[in-house]
Amino acid sequence: MRAALHAIRPDEAPLPPALAATVAKGWIEHGSGAYLLRNLADHATTRTSDLHTYEAETNSQDIPRGDDLAELLGVSLAYARACLRQAQRPVTALFSISEPHDDVIPVTTNVTFWTAERTEPGFEHDIRPLMLLSNAKTDFLYSSTDEQEKVMADTVQALTDQGLPWDESVRKVNEFWGLPSRRWALLYGDWIGQRPGEHWARLITTA
Predict the structure, then answer these.
(1) Which residue has the higher pLDDT, 45 or 69?
(2) Half-sphere exposure of residue 164, counting CA atoms within 13 Å on the CB side?
């Protein structure tokens, strides 16, 4: 899957008509209190579970794209980003990727959404590869665990100790980890936690 992520082109992939229609119709505040994609809410079943599960079930969209995993992920990311840009509340997108086994195709992703302030639906035991994307405000754009966020915060502190303003320090940290080579080789490869914030601050100021 990592190779497929690397292969995604930087431009947004064109959306199939059905996905584009869902994006165009935007979101609604449902009478139940759930935040739903309008196009999917039209086909929702009666709510019989708690709100976050109802949101995740209703806002779920399968995206089959044949045997091209890079194309599949590109369309899935473009769809998720477009929906998140339309949202007027903090929303989390969850990607479940069904990778081919024994060269069996097609591969499929499922993209679902729920409001970020709700408890996340349980997915820890899902055997499929997973990714999360959110429009919720965050200081650190590339952290995916609490440990990574702590190292980034420690790096910001080390930079501010050197006299940089806090906003400038956060910007430098995001720029540093924003380079794809660092994200995959150092950040998502778990190298970030093997060095303290002071180490990364030195690299940032000497790069």
Answers:
(1) 69
(2) 19
